């Protein structure tokens, strides 16, 4: 075995961009798409930086496939991949699941352009900041890649990724950035496990409660925790050897999660730390008995297309009266044979939280979890998740609170911000008997004839009466499953809540916008979605102009404006990738630009417009730091090859972590959080508009960071 020794990562040398980073910039010109394909990005701390290409012999060195190398992981790149360099050459290799500081033997598995990928064969010395991963599957299943990295180190790695991208792809000087304190410390997440909500949203919403069917039959919004396990004909368990020797061990059937990258390998899983306790109980029971030969159950084989059990889907909702968790179990099978499932149903229905057992039949050869028919095997056919607290729930809290505190419901005050709490209900479901308890209810009718939504403001400023009661609001927030729009998006309520309380992102945008408040300014809200950010600022500016490509989102933005009594906001449907020289002529020159693009970032046409515009402030909210860095480069440094001069100055970069142990982060929360906090009257009506929509498909996926960028015009 040929082993190339790597001397370690301590040698400090000149900071440089990595090969894939250069690709981001270059490809944006050649590609007609606004978004170049996203290569991995590293986040190398300047002090432990890498050899520069000039000083290395990367061009002459290219390891052969199958070659083994001794490497040290230096940093984490895009999707949490470890970045290493081959000794004496500077040649970059990426290794999945290598963590910073780890010395290991890797085998070259794939060559890619200027770098190669290696598979880890054996760890020689472990990474820095090693902690014991609480989950036994952490190093095998694709979910939590960095569980055994101390959370502080995870944060550091994410922070550095953003910094590295801004410096290398954005071509900003690290010295200048340090001098100007551009990089703000990452906002950490409070909750490290069981935070995961997977969300499906299908309109329309119904009576503050979200009904959830077991599958595509859903006709209501479903906002519930969902985990999907697969049955497999071959059980994959890690061999005793190092991770690199992961050979399939055929020791029977499997129920678990797919091995990353394999549709036919199922990793046996007993418990998942990201899902609820109740669903873990169900999983344990099913695992315990489904292989019993006397039951005659067989897993579906994706190769032979034989077998019965395809998937086990577990969803957690909430009882509308009590607020307690309720679980729906859904067996996806290849045919309808309910009697075969009886023994399993009998056992899992003994779990108090299980209120529904469904059977989706999918007889196609495909192994999707969507069934053609749906049958109820036990309990009800839908579960509920409280999207908004129902009136009765609010009443409950209200009375509880009155009883305990002997105070009237008052305005809730967080860090000096006044928050009223609103709830939106279907008109038909509001009973007068409910309303009479709210002496100071404000009722704002909507002009939506179909949904007849009204917004009820239930909390008011009562000066001198009682003190703000945080727990009351927290209770409500705990029961909100806000704003996530499609099944791929993940929402971490805790972080969201924290952001509300800490007012982090909200305050940032507010600060960055630096509004005069004299109603003189024009705000341009690019990629405005349902208009949340613009509407939040609307009350303090002359006019907001929002642009969005999705027609329904634009109509919701307009609706949101109406619902919130905002008359100085105009929302325009249009594709910002296809603007021409006339763009901007239909509205006055904006003072403040908010740009919140999807992962591809901004199209060059839009960049040109912004360069021409020379707005005094741009606030760039990004779900993809790589394309964000590229756009910042264009805005601040220009594109000489296109004869464009940069005219902005980078002032601040603020990352936020929302998904500990994974490289993922939700990018949508920021906007919603921001709007929700500040402006009375902008709360639940907006939430409703949000969750009714399902147009965010493209923002789903592995997002690393959520940097908020503030740039201002040089002049
Ligand atoms: C990250 S979201 C921004 C959400 C928005 N700021 C809000 O608060 O609701 C990006 C939005 O850009 C929209 N979008 C994507 N491509 C677009 C394009 N080419 N032109 C205009 N809007 C686009 C998407 O539909 C989506 O609503």
TrEMBL record:
Residues 37-62 are annotated as: Disordered. It comes from the Eukaryota. S-adenosyl-L-methionine binds at residues 527, 548, 596. Residues 62-122 form the TRAM domain. Residues 41-62 have a biased composition (Low complexity). GO terms for biological process: RNA methylation; RNA processing. Keywords: Methyltransferase, S-adenosyl-L-methionine, Transferase. The active site is at residue 623. The keyword Methyltransferase applies. One of its GO terms (molecular function) is RNA methyltransferase activity. PANTHER family: RNA M5U METHYLTRANSFERASE, TRNA (URACIL(54)-C(5))-METHYLTRANSFERASE. Belongs to the class I-like SAM-binding methyltransferase superfamily. RNA M5U methyltransferase family. This is TRAM domain-containing protein. It comes from Dendrobium chrysotoxum (Orchid).
